[in-house]
Automatic annotation (TrEMBL), chain A:
<dbReference type="InterPro" id="IPR035906">
    <property type="entry name" value="MetI-like_sf"/>
</dbReference>
<protein>
    <submittedName>
        <fullName>Spermidine/putrescine transport system permease protein</fullName>
    </submittedName>
</protein>
<feature type="transmembrane region" description="Helical">
    <location>
        <begin position="238"/>
        <end position="259"/>
    </location>
</feature>
<feature type="transmembrane region" description="Helical">
    <location>
        <begin position="143"/>
        <end position="167"/>
    </location>
</feature>
<feature type="transmembrane region" description="Helical">
    <location>
        <begin position="107"/>
        <end position="131"/>
    </location>
</feature>
<keyword id="KW-0812">Transmembrane</keyword>
<feature type="domain" description="ABC transmembrane type-1">
    <location>
        <begin position="72"/>
        <end position="260"/>
    </location>
</feature>
<feature type="transmembrane region" description="Helical">
    <location>
        <begin position="188"/>
        <end position="218"/>
    </location>
</feature>
<feature type="transmembrane region" description="Helical">
    <location>
        <begin position="68"/>
        <end position="95"/>
    </location>
</feature>
Automatic annotation (TrEMBL), chain B:
<feature type="transmembrane region" description="Helical">
    <location>
        <begin position="370"/>
        <end position="392"/>
    </location>
</feature>
<feature type="transmembrane region" description="Helical">
    <location>
        <begin position="273"/>
        <end position="295"/>
    </location>
</feature>
<keyword id="KW-1133">Transmembrane helix</keyword>
<feature type="domain" description="ABC transmembrane type-1">
    <location>
        <begin position="184"/>
        <end position="393"/>
    </location>
</feature>
<feature type="transmembrane region" description="Helical">
    <location>
        <begin position="329"/>
        <end position="350"/>
    </location>
</feature>
<feature type="transmembrane region" description="Helical">
    <location>
        <begin position="301"/>
        <end position="322"/>
    </location>
</feature>
<dbReference type="GO" id="GO:0055085">
    <property type="term" value="P:transmembrane transport"/>
</dbReference>
<comment type="similarity">
    <text>Belongs to the binding-protein-dependent transport system permease family. CysTW subfamily.</text>
</comment>
<keyword id="KW-0812">Transmembrane</keyword>
């Protein structure tokens, strides 16, 4: 906001209180995560401050238990498979959607984005009904299908926005020089929308890695994922191993965030 | 639309091929979503209105019930087909009917079992039923039956709103405690409180960020990254973090005790306070981004103009500044409200039994007590409210983007 030229001598108070409240809210946002994660290195099993001595004990527990390691492995394999499915299906659909005067385009768009908006519990219950009659509950494949469904809107949106920024003249130029649509797609469109595809894939990966509600409905005892394991553990009792798992998840989230920032940064520089 | 009416030039034939190609590209995903998304949602909608147990198991009774007006005394026109059906029905199908009827009247399970056991003595006369159990001749019993004659009906949806269909007075409130209405109210209250607090916290934060001059742009980027980090951190991780902070010997309690503000640990976990605190923390970034973009695109010259004409700060804020950021504020607040309505994980971990929201009960009825009709009906209500609010939100967001261009 603009400084009031008629402001009296006390106006610095207003600015001061605004800055103070701004920093306080920022602290509220960031501090809980920044305080809790170091507790996973604390010796005390009560997860309280101050930290007396540091230990990697809880990480040893995490990486020493087949239960947590299995969950980590499951999470990653499901995330990778559903990312691949979401990028292929979502990328193709986004290419189709980019056609401007398509009858029913808005309707299809809403359908493709809807899994992102409908509350997770509703998707979970509906999938539970349908998947159990198809014999897909308690299977690895069922979870991959479910995660793909939830992740695909992010791919459609990211690739769609990359396509809308695509310079049409490049395609005309290629076509005018005799390139077939297939060559156009492979040599012109795909390289230009690659950042959109990759960031959509990162979003899809992060979505699958985080997803817990639908997983609770569909997963059997053999499909424990890391968030599901954290949820059931947190329901029973709090333990520092949980914080170790949380720290590992934050680490992944940060890596994904930095990667996606890096991509958008490069895109801005290229323009 | 007008395109079709025009005579097609030769080049347009190629356009048709492009159209088909576009549809073909979308087909795999659309088919995929039909199975994994549209099908499940449709199944949920159907199960919320389906009432097939009774017509499947007792077909003749169901037909007779359709003829009955629900008000006159039950007579042999109902009892006769019922006695016949009872003889033919398998015990598995009868158990399904008993379960469905017991949602409304728990005594029906025992009545049906007893009737099936002594089915040979039931010749369909009122006398025989009366000797078995006088309740078989009451209107209430058969009204319960009639409400279950399906194959589709409003029973589950009405139950989810603590309503029932009465054959004399139409749709009436159930006499007992408003169980599900209080769950709905609680869900709305928690979401509303979360939204209001998010607005109150996001406003100073965004004005503070909006004041950054180009000189401090790098600091702004760093601060935005700080807001993005919790946004990217899993909800589960953030909820666990709050559980650790708020527990009896957690960081918050020990700090307050160390500072001498309290003597004994306060109970911060497993109550409404903890739930709303954690929800606000989870939802705040959803509020910050639309509000900040509205503030950044607001016209600051107008404020300068107001000041130059001697307007006081409070007047300037409410009459000049607030109207400019209000659409962004409303869009963000609605988004927070919508997403909070459907929350499951955070209240399940941080709340007590009295702080669970509608999603918890949907999950509970689906996998716990197996009352799929009621689970689906609650799901329909949540879906309807979410869709309605989302349409309003989309309109607000669209109005905003048109306004700035």
């Amino acid at each position: 906001m603009i400084k009031n030229p008629n402001a009296g001598p006390m106006s610095f108070l207003g600015f001061f209180s605004l800055s103070l409240s701004g920093w306080l809210v920022l602290a509220f946002l960031v501090l809980p995560i920044l305080i809790v994660l170091p507790l996973s290195f604390s010796d005390s099993r009560y997860m309280s401050l101050p930290i007396n001595s540091l230990t990697l004990h809880w990480y040893q527990d995490f990486f020493g238990s087949t239960q947590w390691l299995g969950a980590l492995f499951n999470s990653f394999s499901i995330a990778i498979l559903s990312t691949v499915c979401a990028v292929v299906l979502g990328g193709l659909a986004a290419l189709g959607l980019s056609h401007e005067r398509l009858p029913g385009r808005r309707f299809i768009e809403v359908l493709l984005i809807a899994p992102m908006i409908v509350p997770a519990v509703i998707v979970g219950v509906g999938m539970y009904f349908v998947f159990s009659s198809l014999g897909l509950t308690r299977t690895f494949g069922g979870l991959v299908l479910a995660h793909t469904t939830l992740a695909v809107p992010f791919v459609v949106i990211n690739v769609g926005s990359a396509l809308s920024g695509l310079n049409q003249r490049l395609l005309w130029a290629a076509a005018s020089m005799g390139a077939t649509p297939w060559i156009c797609l492979r040599k012109v469109t795909l390289p230009l929308i690659a950042p959109g595809l990759i960031s959509g894939g990162l979003f899809a990966f992060a979505t699958s890695l985080d997803e817990v509600v639908v997983t609770i409905f569909l997963a059997g005892p053999d499909q424990r994922t890391l968030p599901r394991e954290m949820f059931t553990t947190a329901r029973e009792s709090l333990s520092p191993v949980l914080l170790a798992a949380a720290t590992i998840m934050v680490l992944f989230a940060t890596v994904l965030l930095v990667l996606s920032r890096h991509l958008t940064h490069r895109k801005e520089n290229a323009v | 639309m007008t395109m079709i009416a025009l005579p097609l030039p030769v080049a347009a034939r190629k356009n048709y091929r492009a159209l088909w190609r576009a549809y073909a590209l979308m087909a795999p995903l659309v088919l995929f979503l039909l199975i994994t998304f549209v099908g499940p949602i449709a199944t949920l909608l159907w199960r919320g209105v389906a009432d097939t147990e009774l017509p499947d198991a007792l077909p003749q009774t169901a037909l007779a019930l359709k003829q009955w007006d629900g008000r006159s005394a039950p007579d042999e026109r109902l009892l006769q087909p019922f006695a016949q059906d009872l003889r033919a029905v398998s015990s598995k199908d009868l158990a399904a009917v008993a379960r469905r009827l017991s949602y409304e009247a728990p005594q029906m399970r025992a009545m049906l079992t007893a009737a099936k056991r002594s089915v040979d003595s039931l010749d369909g006369s009122a006398q025989a039923f009366a000797t078995l159990d006088p309740r078989w001749l009451t209107k209430e019993t058969w009204q319960t039956f009639k409400r279950a004659t399906g194959p589709a009906g409003s029973f589950h949806v009405l139950s989810a709103l603590d309503l029932k269909h009465d054959y004399n007075e139409g749709i009436v409130s159930k006499g007992e405690e408003g169980l599900y209405r209080s769950i709905l109210l609680r869900t709305f209250a928690i979401a509303a409180a979360t939204t209001v607090i998010c607005v109150l916290l996001a406003f100073p934060l965004c004005s503070f960020l909006d004041r950054r001059t180009p000189r401090t742009r790098n600091l702004l980027l760093l601060l935005l990254l700080l807001i993005l980090l919790p946004f990217w951190t899993s909800i589960l991780v953030r909820t666990t973090a709050w559980m650790v902070l708020l527990q009896d010997n957690g960081v918050v309690n020990t700090t307050l005790m160390y500072l001498g503000i309290i003597d004994a640990p306060m109970r911060l976990l497993y109550n409404r306070f903890g739930v709303i605190l954690a929800l606000v923390h989870v939802m705040l970034p959803f509020m910050v981004f639309p509000l900040l973009s509205a503030m950044q695109s607001s016209n600051k010259l107008l404020i300068q103009a107001a000041y130059s004409m001697g307007a006081r700060p409070v007047f300037t804020f409410f009459r000049v500044y607030l109207p400019q950021v209000l659409p962004g504020l409303a869009a963000g607040a609605l988004m927070v409200f919508i997403v909070t309505l459907g929350f499951y994980i955070t209240p399940a971990l941080i709340g007590g039994p009295g702080d669970q929201m509608i999603s918890y009960y949907i999950a509970q009825f689906t996998t716990g007590t197996l009352n799929w009709g009621l689970a689906s009906a609650l799901g329909i209500i949540l879906l309807a409210v979410t869709t309605l609010l989302y349409l309003i939100q989309a309109r607000l967001a669209r109005g905003r983007s048109q306004g700035t261009h």
